[in-house]
Amino acid sequence: MLLAVLGALVAAAERGGGIKIGGGGGTGGGARDGGRGGGVRIGGDGIRRARTSPAPPPPRAPSVITAALVVPHKAFGTRDYTKAEKAALAKLPRKLKLFSHVRLNVTLSTQGLTPSPMSILDSLCKEFLAVNVSAILYLMNHEQYGRSTASAQYFLQLAGYLGIPVIAWNADNSGLEKRASHASLRLQLAPSIEHQTAAMLSILERYKWHQFSVVTSAIAGHDDFIQAVRERVTALQDRFKFTILNAVVVKRPSDLSELVTSEARVMLLYATREEAADILSAAGDLHLTGENFVWIVTQSVLGSMQQPNKFPVGMLGVHFDTSSSSLIAEIATAVKVFAYGVESYVSDADNIRHPLGTRLSCSGAGAGEARWSTGERFYRHLRNVSVDNEPGRPSIEFTPDGELRAAELKIMNLRPSIGDQLVWEEIGTWNSYPKERLIIKDIVWPGGLHTPPQGVPEKFHMRITFLEEPPYINLAPPDPVSGRCSLDRGIICRIAPETEVAGLEAGAAHGNSSLYQCCSGFCIDLLQQLAEQLGFTYELVRVEDGRWGTLHNGKWNGLISDLVNKKTDMVLTSLIINSDREAVVDFSVPFMETGVAIVVAKRTGIISPTAFLEPFDTASWMLVGAVAIQAATFMIFFFEWMSPSGFDCSTGQESKRVPQNRFSLCRTYWLVWAVLFQASVHVDSPRGFTSRFMTNMWAMFAVVFLAIYTANLAAFMITREEFHELSGLDDPRIARPLSYRPALKFGTVPWSHTDATLSKYFTDPHLYMTQFNRSTVSAGVTSVLTAELDAFIYDGTVLDYLVSQDEDCRLLTVGSWYAMSGYGLAFTRNSKYLSMFNKRLLDLRSNGDLERLRRYWMTGTCKPNKQEHKSSDPLALEQFLSAFLLLMAGILLAAILLGLEHVYFRYMRSHLAASSAGPCCALVSLSMGNVLLFPHTISGMFLFALIKQVAFTNQSTSSQIPTYWFINQIELILYHRIYNSTRLLRFFALLQ
């Protein structure tokens, strides 16, 4: 009803026919409905002040400045209020400059617990505007948080619309919605809801309670309380990390069921005293109270601290005194703030034309202001005051929002008293000055204990299913005697079905490696950190069917099946997150990224037979062989032939004899080749100076040529590492394997994420590769090393790890990763553990723990990508095989030349000898020339020897050689010119 009236007032004001305040000559009271605007009109036939002459210009400040004091109505209370107000004015320092110009006056007005809107309007129009109040001192200690809070909100909002500053001290200020009072010019002397939340969180910080839940009723200001808690948590995040697990607005008892599945053990409660009793009663029925649960309540729950027996023992609360004596004491503070504000205002020369008299009227007549324009100016001076307080306490100052800067709250504890009674007892204080400080004495904790609860759930037990895959989970046998795992082997985990270990003694069963193994790896280290931080125990069990979890014939298998059927609480391994799995289970945030990759092996190829030629390209070899060698040979021979001291180039009959200079074109070739390759063989040097100079220039060329050749030869004389350079799953050799001959052999692990991805997006390759699949990734990598497979497709991070652990560094991953995703912890649908694990995983990622684990477990000696082979191993035969091939080619060529030599001597030499080509052949080859010219040289010698032998034979009677034989030999030599070494030797032997 009140909100409807307020809405009508606001709407009418926005239409121009709402609250009409005029200043037409006098002040009056009374209020009546009507007016042309159709809204609520304040004014009418009230008290009017006659005017006989025009009003003079406003003075610098009025002689009397009035403030209205609004206090609760109670019997025999007016005298106490008046006494306190007069005492406050009397105690104002005489040194204030305002006393030389003005006199302060305070008009007292009392207000009931739930005043009606009309009475509030009457007090504003008849009592306050009639005396031109410059500010309202609003002090209330009601804590009903119902109609009384709504009345206070209405009063303060109307004052804000009028532009009149308000200095307030109301116990229920936390129930005033800031969204509705943002336009008010209000200073709050009581501790605000922000102070209460700061004090509550300081208790959590003292006892290291990091996580909590916020519980409120539908009380006014509950949204502001939740927002204040969130803002405070954000402000403290660098000093102390809080986690708000739940924010529950309780409208019915069933709303608390959200806390049953929560891990919160600390609750911050904001409600009225009656609502808090109902909430805590329902919480007790849900077992949310007791020695493990801490409830911390606000001032609204404590109130006057009555009826504490409805609350559980051990509760904590924040409180400030709202008794009548405290209210009377705050009157002096409010008056002092008002006086200091007036002092600041009148001392400012800029305000000389802005008097502090409101001069507003509710009559609606005249052309007066609808809102006091000077009010905001005066409010700024009030907000900026600094008023001295009691000794030992800070000065009274305000924040830009008008809240008290320095506040003090009492920390209360609900504990047993005489008999079965419970009482709220002060156990400490919280101060926001000079810096926040919490002082607490002994506390009776929930359940009557004298030690604080942990603030987190007691250790809970989880069944965790896994599937081994290095380096995430490695398996190793436990100690057969003790049945335990060493520090470097991890923790014990069961690999056999539960039926096989049922009834066995734990110690003996743990020593059986067929039943239990030691689990270690990245995921195990991660699990131990999570267990330590979250406080839970666990049992590690291997999935029975040994599959990762894919949808087959409409049913899930493997790890996902255990989660769907609720056989386990969590799956911990290198389980990839994908859309199909997310449809049936809940995944945590990823703890590592991955994708589908390809691993291949490097093969040591046979060195090329032409490796010794590869330091130069074909054009270079052609330039050396066809140009350089030929040019050098012919130029050396030409210079030697043309040199006067070189080759004898005479003609005529002397050309028939053997030349004295042992040099020819073939010997020039021999010289050029010997110098080029620096061969240690006998060569004939030219005699001419020019040809010798040319020979030296060729030698210099040979030095440069060999230096360049040998410098590059090592790079081509070693074996090359060959591998399949695949671009990824889109590579044609994988996407269309049957289009190539020979087809690439590749596979994966069946029933894995990779297998499901290939079957979904690469149908043809998936059908082809089923014949090459392997049961485990280790078997697949081994098949690649042994050349049974050309490639293996699997998770990228797993393959990178196996590549880095390869002793020979023969493995490498190729191509780009496909279907990028991540590994996550898997939970059953709507698991209560998901949020807490997500929070811890994010913390581990932000502080670098996940990265440290990755570096520890993923780093190996070999790099997963392409790398150069850098080693000092002895050279193998393959690395200089081309040299042997060159030697073999030389032997074959020499054999061919030997055959050609026999052909020449048998079939061609006699024809050349019969011709006159001997001298010309000597130019090309000296040996050939000597052979052809040899009969002319030795014919006279043979003739003389034969004659001598015949004469000697005739004298000897014992000679057995007939004369006709000698004649035949001479004929063969002189006429037929048939000569060979064997016949010549036999002939000379007979002559001796």
TrEMBL record:
Q: Which positions fall inside the Ionotropic glutamate receptor L-glutamate and glycine-binding domain? A: 507-565
Boundaries of every Ionotropic glutamate receptor C-terminal domain copy: 498-860
- InterPro entries attached here? ANF_lig-bd_rcpt (IPR001828), Glu/Gly-bd (IPR019594), Iono_Glu_rcpt_met (IPR001508), Ionotropic_Glu_rcpt (IPR015683), Iontro_rcpt_C (IPR001320), Peripla_BP_I (IPR028082)
Q: Which Pfam families match?
A: ANF_receptor, Lig_chan, Lig_chan-Glu_bd
Q: Where is this region: Disordered?
A: 21-62
Q: Which GO terms describe its cellular component?
A: postsynaptic membrane
Q: Which residues cross the membrane?
A: 621-642, 695-718, 880-900, 912-934
UniProt keywords, alphabetically? Cell membrane, Disulfide bond, Glycoprotein, Ion channel, Ion transport, Ligand-gated ion channel, Membrane, Postsynaptic cell membrane, Receptor, Signal, Synapse, Transmembrane, Transmembrane helix, Transport
Q: How does it sit in the membrane?
A: Multi-pass membrane protein
Q: Which residues bind L-glutamate?
A: 581, 754, 795
Q: Where is the signal peptide?
A: 1-18
Q: Ranges of Gly residues compositional bias?
A: 21-45
In this chain, the site described as Crucial to convey clamshell closure to channel opening is at 726
Subcellular localization is given as:
Cell membrane; Postsynaptic cell membrane
Q: Which GO terms describe its molecular function?
A: ligand-gated monoatomic ion channel activity; signaling receptor activity
* Keyword check for S-adenosyl-L-methionine: no
Protein known as: Ionotropic glutamate receptor
Which organism's genome codes for this protein? Operophtera brumata
